[in-house]
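Now for one specimen:
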Amino acid sequence: MFDFKNNLKDLLSKTGFSTAGIIALVVLLILPFIPPFNNEYILRWLVVGAFLAAEAVAFDLTAGFINVVNFGFAAILGLGAYTSAILTNTSPVIPVQVGLSPWLGMLIGGIIAGFAGFILGFLTLRLRGIYAAIMAWFVGIALLGIVRNIPKYTRGSLGYSPVGLLETTSNRPYFYIAILLLLVIYIVSKIIVSSKYGLAFKALGQNFDAARASGVNPTLYRVFNFTLSSFFAGILGGFYAHYFRSLTPKAVMHTSKTVEVLAIAFIGGRGSLWGGILVAFPFVFFIEYLRSALPSLPGLHMIIYGILMILVMIFYPNGVAGLIKWMKTGISRKKKYPISLSGS
């Protein structure tokens, strides 16, 4: 007999959703219609929040599971952004005028970024920990330098204005596109880390030599991880290009952009995937409020990120996700083993 309740529960578990997660998603989806969140400037914050949350999930797939911090993440995202922008161009400002649909441009940008991740995975195969992170950083710097030094096609530091994804000035449709991208990246990542691939990722991240001695192929799993994470980054880069419609190498590909994503993923909880989503939205609102309230202090958000990272690393390395899991475990234990007031 078909057990709908248990089958639904299994499906939600495999895709990484809980009852609280479903409720939060529903609230998030109706939020753009509720004042004051229906104001355009707040809708823009919501779009940025969803975008950063999706970035955090893609970043955590590598940092949280195979234990390699990809400091070239923003550069790979920028590679996807510039690829999509160039392929969809119809303006004479650059010699390439293919004029593809932005949707197709985003996909091709993801494929090109995924190929870059494939190469990066091979380059870091023999490297571990900080050495792999430094190699990823060097690759990111190289990509940044290439984009900056071919102004004929990218306009370099002058900046380039890609075509828009939609023919509208409203931020609301972009919010739902960003949410869709977030959901797809999260669900695909969750399904993969819940499979044998996820077990291999964790084994390589915890003890590389022991995993290899146990039969885990580091080439297969590490390259696959980098490729998938970079593919997601490239898709998000395409969305960035066609939503913000402004690209400069420093604004998109600089290491500081990777640090922002790293901070959100780590504060949310490494290896959780959903922790970064939980942290991204309130962070964006808080940071944007500080930027508008204190315009004379640029870069203040980076100081806040640093302070919060230090506090998390010292007091609770598992981040917000770990704290929530600890609280849920404590509540379930109290329900299972209630303490009598009389002491009996």
Notes: The chain has one domain: 4-336.
